[in-house]
Each structure stands twice: as C-alpha cells, then as structure tokens.
Amino acid sequence: MTSDDQFFFDFLASVPHDVKRYSAEVAESIDRNVDYAATVIKDALTVYFPHVISFGSRDLPALRRPPPRSVSERAYDWVMRHRAWTAAIAAFFGTGAVLYLGSRSFNNRKRRARRAGNGARKEIVVIAGSPHEPMTRAIAEDLERRGFIVYVVVQSVEEEHTIQMQNRSDIRALHLDLTTAPPTPSEIHPALHGIYSLISQPQSPAPGIQPHTCQLSGLIILPSLNYPTGPVPTITASNWADTINTRLLSPILITQLFIPLLTHRNQSNSIVFLYPSISASLSAPYAGPEVAVTRALSGFATSLRQELRLLQFSNGASCNTDIVEMKLGNIDLGPHFRVPQVAGTEVLAWSHHHRSLYGPSYLSSVEQRPVASTGPNAVRGSPARVLHNAVFDSIAPSRKSVFGRKTRRKAVVYVGRGSRSYGIIGEWIPTSLVGWMLGQGNLPQSSSESGNSSETGWERL
C-alpha cells in the first residue's frame, strides 16, 4: 500500500469524529438560542401578566419590579427635592406652635397682685358699682383674693353696711358724695384724701417694718346691668332720669374725680368701663334706655382715651392711663349670684291703649329671648373665671412686646358668650335680617282684628 492510500484511509477515519464534533456544536448553538428566546419571551410575559406567570430563577434583574418604598423614604426624598418649601413649612408651624404654647402659658399663669418689699398689699382698685349688684360683689371678692386693696363706691349707709357684712378687711367702703365737688375740677375730692395719702406718702404696716407706697392700679366703672324695658311711651320720665343719672352721669362724674389720682404719679393704670353689649349691638327694640346709655358711655370712653393719649407731662412723658371698654355678653356667675328674671309681666302696668298698640309685638320680642322661653337656669353663659381674668388683665401692668416696647392694653375687650358674635351681626348683617332674628316677622294679629279676645288675654296674663 502506497503512501497515498494510507493518507486516504486516515482521512476517512477522521471524518466521523469531525462530523460528531460539528453536529454537537450546532446542537449546542441551537439550544442556546432557543433558551435565550424562551427566557426573553417569559420575561416579557411576566411584565405584562405578573399574576399569571411567576418569576423564575433565570429572570433578568433589569426587568424585575423594584420593592415598595416606605413612607419615611418617600418623605425624605421629597424633603431633599424641595428644601425651600420644607424650610417655609417648618418656620410656619414652628412659629404657630410657639405662639400657641405662649398663649396657653399666658392664660394659665397665676394672676396675682404685686406686693411691697415688706410683703404688704400695695395695689389699690376702686370699683364704682352698687354693692347690691351680683357682678360688683363677685369682682370685688375675686380681686381681694388676688391680693388687691379694693374700694367699693357707696352712696348710702345701707350700701356701706352691705360692704361691712362681707367681713373682708381689704374690701372697704368708699362713701363718695357726688353732690359735693372740690373748688376746681383738678383738685382732690374731700372723700378721696384717704386714697391720695396712700399713693403719695409712705405707709408702714406696723412699727419697725419698712414703709411702702401704695399704687392706684385701676378704676372699674360698673353701672347697673338692669335697665327698664318697653316701648318709649311707656317709660316714665322718672325712669329716664334715674337711668341717665345712675348709669351715665354718675360714671362720668366718678371718672372725672379720679383722673387727678390716676395721673398723680403717672404710673401704669387703667379705667375699665363694663356695660352690656348685646342689645346695643343689635339696636334691639324696646331697649331704648340700655341702647342709649351704653352707646353714650362707649362714646365717652373713646373720647377720653384720645384725650389722655394727647396728655403730656412736664418731663415730656406721655400718660400711662389706658381706657378699656369691656363689652359683656352672657356670663354665669354661679347659682348664688343668679337672679331670677321675669319677662312680660311689665305689660300689666301699661295703659289699655299702650297694651293694645304695643302688647303683641312686645310679647313676641320677649318670646325670642332664650331666658324667657327656657328659664334663667337653662341659659348658660361663659364661666365667671373668664370675667375675672379679663378684669385682672385690664388693670395689670402692660407687658413688653418681643422687641422690648411696652404695649398698650386692648381698647375693647369682649367678655361673655355672645358679645363678639352679636357685635359682628349688628355691624355687618342687614337691619331687615336682624329684625327678623328679633321676631319682627312673627307678629301675632293686631288687637283691632282680635277684638275683645285680646283684652281677655291681658286679664289672663
């Protein structure tokens, strides 16, 4: 056998090995491509149908859904993307929290009168109100408990005896006769020399104790809150004169007498005018005396406030006496101060002509009052604590602002349920709608149509 034959036989022997190797490579290539195509199709279907086809072990990481992020992580990302908004929101809520906590601490603080260095009482408050009025007694007792020396203006021996019956050493009667006046308005009234000596000369509580000088911190003007009601023709001239003298003229004269004492040392003090505001705000019908007196008293207080702000002393200092108007709403002073109210019976004192002319509309307006329909014990006003805190804040020394400047007291303070809301209603709501609220749209039939039945109704009343 030649060499060519040997080469041919060797070539034929290697052919099966080459075919086997090439076929294996082709098969492996086909398997790889088929597996890759199957994986791509499965991953694509998994994205669109996640609940039908579950992820396999050979899922591509790029096509997997990211895990859900927590709320804190999303909030952190938002804060990092909006840093300016975050700073503004933090400043807004931080300032609000500081103001809220500051107001709570201010309202919850202990309100006590200042004492002298030797521990004695040194702040004096004068209340110009009748001792028979429940609110006068309540305010006097509260201020005495807070550490003030309280003087209550009395006009008769009976009122002075009422003050003495309270058995409070620091609630004293001040008999002030308004019919006698000093030679000139700027001089001290003879009845006020005792208070003048307390605020101008050092006082020693006992021998061996360091003397101190008292301070007149405030004058509280509190006229009677009970006014005659009814149509103007049914109110007698004596009632008008008594209302004007006791609730308007007397407060003005008392204020005039105390201004020299309040401006004597130019210390921080105030004059507080307390008066009911609901009827005056609504200009309620059949409440002419109350509306006339309260609005006149408010006008006097406003004029006096402007006058004292223009006052200049010899050293160039301005006057530190503030005028505060305290508009009262419904206030619950407690069961021992509550006075039963009877509404509508005053119609019996009218003449037949006035009863037939004004009776139906007057009784209709009375029925709109909650006290008349539900009784005095069913109507609850603001607690007495609100009134006492407001009175103390009105006579307490002025506080300094954030910038260190002394702020004046509020010119108008609303105290009691309904005082602010009825003020807004009377100022902004149309008069016709206010009249409908007061019952002017629900009037019964006139007496001319009812005939003798109305007269029978008056007799039954």
Give structural notes.
By secondary structure, the chain is an alpha/beta fold. It has three domains: 55 residues; 37 residues; 271 residues, 3-Layer(aba) Sandwich (Rossmann fold), CATH 3.40.50.720. Helices cover 49% and strands 10% of the residues. The protein is built from 16 helices and nine strands. The strands form two sheets. It has a seven-stranded parallel β-sheet, with helices on both faces. A two-stranded parallel sheet has the order 7-8. α5 links the parallel β2 and β3. The longest helix is centred in the first third of the chain and has 46 residues. It starts with a helix and ends with a helix.
DSSP E strands, number: 9
Rounded to an integer in angstroms, the radius of gyration calculated over CA atoms is 43 Å
Order of helices and strands: HHHEHEHEHEHEHHEEHHEHEHHHH
In the sheet with the most strands, the strands line up as: 3-2-1-4-5-6-9
Q: Given the structure, what is the number of helices?
A: 16
Cα-to-Cα separation, first versus last residue:
157 Å
Class by alpha and beta content: alpha/beta
Q: CATH class of the largest domain, please?
A: Alpha Beta
CATH A-level architecture of the largest domain? 3-Layer(aba) Sandwich
Quaternary class: single chain
Low-confidence stretches: 370-378, 444-461
Tell me, briefly, the overall form. Answer: elongated
**Averaging pLDDT over every residue, what do you get?**
79
CATH superfamily descriptor of the largest domain: NAD(P)-binding Rossmann-like Domain
Query: How helix-rich are the residues, as a percent range?
Result: 40-55%
- Largest sheet descriptor: 7 strands, parallel
Please report which band the strand proportion falls in: under 5%, 5-15%, 15-25%, 25-35%, 35-45% or over 45%.
Answer: 5-15%
Q: Domain count, please report it.
A: 3
Annotated CATH topology of the largest domain: Rossmann fold
Protein name: DUF1776-domain-containing protein
Organism: Talaromyces atroroseus
Keywords: Membrane, Transmembrane, Transmembrane helix
Pfam family, one: DUF1776
